[in-house]
Design goal:
heterodimer, A: mainly beta, 5-stranded antiparallel sheet, B: mainly beta, 7-stranded mixed sheet, 4-stranded antiparallel sheet
Chain lengths: ~110, ~120
């Protein structure tokens, strides 16, 4: 079967750095997406990785290792508004998105 | 670019009633997706369209669910004879897929929250 694993919940301090991991087992791989979702709102696109390595976008970076079936989202200089769920999704061999359950990130002052 | 819009934002209905939701995608996007999401879970794929053609429908999707995209622009999702288990957030997303490939990044609307009493 296809599976995306993420921690259920993480807590971090305002101004700090946090890394959210995602491991996947899918039938094929055609890219990995990270989305941010605030409570009661729709997911918003953060990043896309299809090749190994690090993609940096402002305070957010995303890393991919296809051989390990592993990605992480790195958030720097955390702000209170970063409190949200972070969803990892992998596009499989049929080009369908397989979604993780999301990681709820709690930022404390 | 006005983004993806959905209507209504909230719907409360009684068990057994039919409901219909509308999604207006980003204007130049050719793909439109429907998802269902419950608390603490990621989005669950329901179906998707490329232009007006419905290319895939989840095998887990009951026959009570039907979707249309008649002119390749907006789409509707209808749920017949609603059940309490249908209570969820229904999300629509759109993307642009060109012949040259691309990321097919999906952009989501605000969702319709359905409560079945």
């Amino acid at each position: 079967g296809q599976n995306i694993d993420q921690p259920t919940e993480m807590t971090a301090t305002e101004g700090a750095i946090v890394q959210i991991n995602c491991t996947y087992q899918t039938s094929g791989f055609n890219g990995l997406f990270w989305y941010q979702q605030h409570a009661g709102e729709a997911p918003t696109f953060l990043s896309y990785n299809v090749l190994d390595g690090l993609e940096e976008k402002g305070r957010f970076s995303s890393f991919l290792s296809r051989s390990k079936g592993y990605s992480y989202l790195l958030l720097k200089e955390l702000q209170m508004k970063d409190s949200a769920s972070y969803l990892c999704a992998v596009k499989d061999s049929n080009y369908q998105l397989i979604w993780g359950a999301g990681t709820k990130l709690i930022i404390k002052p | 670019d006005t983004g993806v819009s959905q209507d209504p934002r909230h719907k409360i209905t009684k068990r057994g009633q039919n409901v219909t939701f509308r999604c207006d995608p980003i204007s130049e996007h050719n793909r439109l997706y429907w998802y269902r999401q419950t608390l603490g879970q990621g989005p669950e794929f329901l179906t998707y369209f490329q232009n007006e053609a419905q290319l895939e429908k989840s095998r887990l999707l009951s026959d009570r669910f039907s979707a249309e995209r008649p002119k390749g622009s907006f789409s509707t999702l209808e749920i017949q004879r609603t059940e309490q288990g249908d209570s969820a957030m229904y999300l629509c997303a759109s993307s642009l897929v060109s012949s040259g490939g691309g990321t097919d990044t999906q952009y989501f609307g605000p969702g319709t929250r359905l409560t079945v009493l």
